[in-house]
Design brief:
single chain, 2 domains, two-stranded antiparallel sheet, 3 helices, elongated
Length: 75
């Protein structure tokens, strides 16, 4: 069976494309599967779906994400 590819680095993941997302780690709804290395990478910021859904203005969304990042980094 074909393996899913990581959306960040393009490497093959451990998951077959037929495995339901409920049984996977590192799957981001609306984006795709992350490999183990990219999923544990500290260079990514996860954004709650509700923030994306409730912020239709892209510029405002970018500001919210930037604020989340700075709060997480303690800056």
């Amino acid at each position: 069976m074909a393996k899913d590819k990581c959306i960040m680095c393009g490497k093959e993941t451990t998951y077959d494309v037929s495995v339901p997302i409920d049984y996977r780690f590192g799957y981001i709804e609306g984006a795709g599967q992350l490999c183990y290395e990219c999923n544990k990478d500290d260079n990514t910021v996860r954004v709650p779906k509700q923030i994306v859904k409730n912020t239709p203005n892209d510029m405002e969304l970018g500001g919210k994400i930037r604020n989340m990042f700075y709060k997480q980094e303690g800056l």
